[in-house]
Specification:
Layout lengths: L1 E4 L14 H5 L4 H10 L5 E4 L4 E5 L10 E6 L2 E9 L2 H7 L8 H14 L5 H6 L3 E9 L4 E6 L8 E4 L5 E4 L2 H8 L3 E3 L4 E4 L3 E4 L5 E9 L5 E13 L18
Antiparallel strand pairs: 1-3, 1-9, 2-3, 4-5, 5-6, 6-7, 7-11, 8-9, 8-10, 11-12, 13-14
Length: 249
């Protein structure tokens, strides 16, 4: 799976981008998606206008960590992996027995956005399983991205020379387009347009970049770890309102 977002909807966090990307990274957003889709049989690409692109293929997927895609009311979501407590979540969100993981993620996001009964970190923690997902809400130009606490699914992010933020399960793709400006997506974390990168395991702590060095000794895009000593200035909002959920994070 692949998602490429413009900096206006997904700003690269501090530390991920390295100067080498300007020289060694290659390709704009359209070129990245074209390379991805042309090399995968049956790939489906969604043009998100000025916000970017999403692309998906079931080719060569791990049967234990399958990929899926869904679009509901201008919300687009790529999901890979599985959720173990899916029956509980269906009941919690009032969903039919036939829905799958990707629909559950969309409905969880819509509940947060429209009614906000739970904080975002709690909602992601409620997803028990092995997963990574990328969601884009075109009605509000908001992204919502997360990976499980064990980094069970291969999942990477990076920044290309044009400042696009790239999410994918294919390391070769992200290395080609982002040069040294890529890293594994931090486990136990989620990323939103307005809130940036946060830990859902430790929501009251800051997440800080740590320089990442490759096998050749070159500094690459940073990894991110929870800073046990750094608390956020204010607690996470615990109760939502009629306001857009994304504006709170």
């Amino acid at each position: 799976m692949l998602a490429v977002f413009d900096r206006t909807v997904a700003k690269s966090p501090e530390g991920l981008r390295q100067p080498e990307a300007e020289e060694k990274g290659s390709g704009g957003a359209a070129a990245i998606v074209e390379h991805f889709s042309s090399s995968r049989e049956g790939a489906v690409t969604i043009n998100l206008g000025s916000a970017g692109f999403m692309s998906y293929s079931s080719e060569k997927q791990d049967p234990l960590l399958p990929r899926s895609f869904a679009a509901v009311d201008d919300i687009f979501c790529l999901f890979q992996g599985h959720i173990g407590n899916i029956a509980t979540l269906k009941q919690q969100y009032g969903l039919s027995k036939s829905v799958n993981e990707v629909i559950i993620v969309i409905e969880a996001y819509r509940t947060l956005r429209d009614r906000g009964p739970y904080p975002a970190d709690q909602v992601v923690r409620d997803l028990n399983g092995k997963f990574a997902f990328v969601l884009f809400d075109s009605s509000s130009n908001c992204t919502f991205v997360a990976a499980d606490a064990e980094a069970s699914v291969p999942f990477f992010w990076g920044t290309n020379s044009e400042g696009h933020l790239v999410f994918t399960d294919d390391m070769d793709i992200v290395k080609k387009c982002c040069g040294k400006s890529f890293a594994p997506f931090p486990k136990g974390c989620f990323f939103t347009t307005s809130g940036g990168l946060q830990s859902f395991e430790h929501p009251l702590n800051e997440v800080k970049p740590v320089p990442r060095v490759d096998s050749q000794g070159d500094v690459c895009g940073a990894t991110y770890k929870v800073d046990a000593k750094a608390k956020k200035e204010s607690g996470m909002p615990r109760v939502g309102s009629a306001a857009n959920w994304a504006s709170q994070y």
